[in-house]
Amino acid sequence: MQAYDIICQSARKLFGFCWRCLRKLASKFPGQVFRLSKQRAQARFGGGVSMNATPGQEPVKSFLPKWVRGPQDFIGGVALMAIALFALWASSDLQGMRGFSFGAGTAPRMFGFLLLGLGAAVALVGVFTEGAHLAKYHWRGPLFVSLAILSFAFTIRPMGMIFAAMASFVIAACGTPETRWVETLIVGACLTAFCALLFPYALGLPLQLLPTFLIR
Asked: Do 127 and 69 meet the contact criterion of CB atoms below 8 Å apart?
């Protein structure tokens, strides 16, 4: 009887130790427990039974051809290539390099070719590798960023770079509802001050800092 009691106590201790270890593993890796239970259920009831965590999901239908394995990467790469081609067309009448001196169209064409190559690489990734499907598109971000660019273009000459840079930064910050306005204004002021020191003084570019009515 003593041997039987010793065996029972050892078995209870071993079971308690294993149970505590399993609880610790379950608390650290909760997804693994569900995955193991799912695999055991499939092995028990057969591979034909599907136990999805979110039932009722249907396969995503895509308008792209079947050889596009990553639709989101493919569409993004094509969009980058379209922007690059537009930049190359818009800068085609600008002056290029003369010897070692940069012309007005050198930098736009250089970045346009780089963007074109990058877009082609991203599109090829969408063709040869599996990727995400097209997600829902939100217009708020691109809308306010475009408005910020247009605001800078129309206000840089009459209002000066300080006002144009700060206004465009604030408009671009409206592109997300997560904007914290105190931090945004601080960062915008620091960025505007950096641009006011960099372009006119460090690079020597003839940029107007203050509005025209204050200079006159």
From this structure: yes
pTM above 0.70? Answer: no
Question: Count of H helices and E strands in the chain?
Answer: 7, 0
CA–CA dist 20, 162 (Å, integer): 64
CB 114, CB 165: distance < 8 Å: no
N-to-C CA span, the chain: 109
The two three-digit tokens of residue 152, written as one number? 């800078």
Question: Residue 101: what are its φ and ψ, rounded to 5°?
Answer: -95, 135
Cβ atoms of 119 and 78 closer than 8 Å:
yes
Angle (CA) 129 135 137, round 5°: 135
Which tens digits make up the pLDDT trace of 46-82? Answer: 544 444 444 444 555 666 777 788 888 888 889 999 9
